[in-house]
Amino acid sequence: MTPQDHRAPETPVSSELPAAQAIGSKGAARRRFARTGLAGGVIMTLVSKPGMAMTCTTASGFASGPNASISPGTSCSGRSPGYWSKWTGEWKRAGLNTDAKFGKIFTCGSNFTSKLAPQTLLEVVDQSLGPKHVDKDNVARHLVAALLNARTGKVPQLPEREVMEIWDSYARTQTYTPKKDVVWNGADIVIYLKSTMM
Fold first, then answer.
1. How far apart (Å, rounded) are the C-alpha atoms in residues 105 and 123?
2. pLDDT band at 71 (very low <50, low <70, confident <90, very high)
3. CB-facing half-sphere around the CA of 34: CA atoms within 13 A
């Protein structure tokens, strides 16, 4: 049996013309390759690795929307709450202990935050450990991760001072104002914080 016996029949170019126009010449070429390559018995895996850094912006820049200008050098490599809950050995680089009480690091009052105060930072960042439904929008959870990111230099656009400002405002009013006339609720805060995390 020759290699030609394993090839799929070629599709006439004229039948691909509308597809090529819709997806571009490179897309059409990839589809032709996939059809003939896979039909010919070739198994292929394409790997797309994420970059080690991504583009981040300040909270006020994020609030300005997608048309906001982003200055060069705004890469960051923040980690998610899930990452910090699994890689607890890295907390030392941030100068934090997983057993530290949330209320010793973040200001807590007599409102909903009082239930978070006695929890450890690890219990807050790892949902499987802490009490359920205390942190409605997971703001505290993401702010603990943001604090760890700030202290380890992973997100220079969100320094520790701003992490604490976000929490203090949220703890008082359950909102944060990143810029004049823009008010974020808990879900909005988390959307921004997630944009700084891989």
1. 14
2. very low
3. 8
